[in-house]
Write a structure and sequence with these properties.
single chain, alpha+beta, 4-stranded mixed β-sheet, 34% helix, 23% strand, EC 6.3.3.1
Length: 341
């Protein structure tokens, strides 16, 4: 007899995965989450928006790209979900939105309940760090389309911002200071180039390089820093004009999106030292500076644009919260682009 299981889909394994992840997902719960007994939908009490005069809903969707291939090769699956949250919810905070909730989607060749629970546990932990709720998700088994140990994940998030408090290019002024907010490492962009370097240089993920002091796989799987709470608190405490989430396209590409057409951000490359992992990749891969600049965050995971007179206070506040920050550059008359001095 032909069965769904014989075709490669194990429904019972999926049910075990759900049971294993429940406790981890519960840690991300917000008071506004409403239980749906059927489990078909995630519910969020929209009456929470009544505290806003004119609430604007913000939404974002993303994945983690080929960083999942490093996680699969190294056999470490408990942090890749944090990366997903960073890619999705930290896009929301750029306009000043408070992340409210998120859903995830995992496609895999074979449902291994423990592995799925680890992945979703990372998503739940990232949501907890961001102050958002993980209200639902889906795990799909795709035998034949993916290998048994292969998986991919994506997610979508929703946030809210008061209309007259929305941040962005229209608030930026000549003379503003640009702050760099430290990344935790490579985050989740540029991993196609990373994997190319690993193959070209025949580097093992188990290699302990002197520049890093730990296995290369651990360094490359360092989870993305979650900026949401820190950026929201900064905007509540001092005047903030704009943020830029530094993802694919690097610092110049992403910061340019947060500038009006008549202003430039001039950046001082000497104001910070990129983490050693970028020197390792550049050295072993022979990567030119221009390619490093447009591929990686190089140690700056988020940028903030603030009035120059509050820059020192903003840096101090962020560092008190455990987030290294510094004055990275300034806003001058220009053509709407970020550039190095």
């Amino acid at each position: 007899m032909t069965t769904y299981e014989a075709a490669g889909v194990d429904i019972e394994a999926g049910e075990r995965a759900v049971a294993l992840m429940k406790e981890k997902v519960a840690r991300s719960r917000r008071p506004e989450v409403v239980d749906d007994a059927s489990g078909f939908a995630g519910l969020f009490d929209a009456s929470a928006l009544l505290r806003f005069r004119r609430p604007l809903l913000a939404t974002s969707t993303d994945g983690v790209g080929t960083k999942v291939m490093i996680a699969q090769r190294y056999g470490k699956h408990d942090t890749i979900g944090v990366d997903l949250v960073g890619m999705v919810l930290d896009d929301l905070v750029v306009c000043g939105a408070e992340p409210l909730f998120m859903t995830d989607y995992i496609a895999c060749g074979k449902v291994v309940p423990e592995r799925v629970a680890e992945i979703v546990g990372g998503v739940a932990e990232g949501c907890r760090l961001a102050g958002a709720a993980l209200v639902g998700g889906e795990t799909a088994e795709h035998p034949g389309a993916m290998g048994a140990d292969e998986y991919d994940l994506a997610g979508a998030g929703t946030g809210v911002v008061e209309a007259d408090a929305m941040l962005g290019p229209d608030r930026v002024r000549e003379g503003d200071a640009v702050l760099g907010l430290a990344s935790s490492g490579v985050h989740a962009n540029g991993y196609s180039l990373v994997r190319h370097v690993l193959k070209q240089a025949d580097l093992s993920l188990d290699a302990v390089l002197p520049e890093l002091g730990r296995p290369l796989g651990e360094e490359l799987l360092e989870p993305t820093r979650i900026y949401s709470r820190d950026c929201l608190e900064l905007a509540r405490t001092v005047e903030v004009h704009a943020y830029a989430h530094i993802t694919g396209g690097g610092l110049e590409g992403n910061l340019s999106r947060s500038l009006p057409g008549h202003l430039d951000a001039v950046l001082d490359r000497s104001s910070w030292t990129p983490p050693p992992i970028f020197e390792v990749l550049a050295g072993h891969g022979g990567i030119a500076q221009a390619d490093l600049d447009r591929t990686f965050n190089l140690g700056v995971g988020m940028a903030a644009i603030v009035p120059a007179e509050v820059a020192d206070e903003a840096v101090r506040l962020l560092e008190e919260r455990g987030l290294p920050a510094w004055v990275l550059g300034e806003v001058v008359a220009g053509e709407g682009r970020a550039r190095y001095s």
